Known about the structure:
The chain is mainly alpha-helical. Helix content is about 65%, strand content about 10%. Mean pLDDT is about 80; it is low at about 5-25.
Amino acid sequence: MNTKTILIAAMASVFAVTAAAPSFAAGDPAKKEKRIHRLMKRADTNHDGKISQSEMAQALAASFAVLDTNHDGHLSKAELDNRKASYKASKASGERLYAVVRLPKRVAKHFGRIDANKDGLISQAEMEHVAARLFKHRDRNKDGYISTADLKA
């Protein structure tokens, strides 16, 4: 190859990377919209277009029940690490409630922070405490509900 071809190829690759960078930084709006729609469909049990704190608590309890595979009332790190298999098994068994929301990877990542009493397990009460804080954070307009607009903000 000659120097001119190498230079053009290098400039083209730099341009491609810098052109794609803003789309990676901003995230895929279509995927975000799909996630919001899925969350609203699962958690908005009365179909009023918004999620109340009680609906969020019900969704959390359903998720907790699916993930608590040994039914001891606590989530271990292993149960959280195995959450994909638990969701698939509950879906395949037909026992899955539609209100089950998938807990994000951050729950497993921040296991030590969520486990307030440091017993190596996350109790339902510890999870509810985190969920209440998350609800307040997500309720952007402070009307007591999480709406699609709150999730998009």
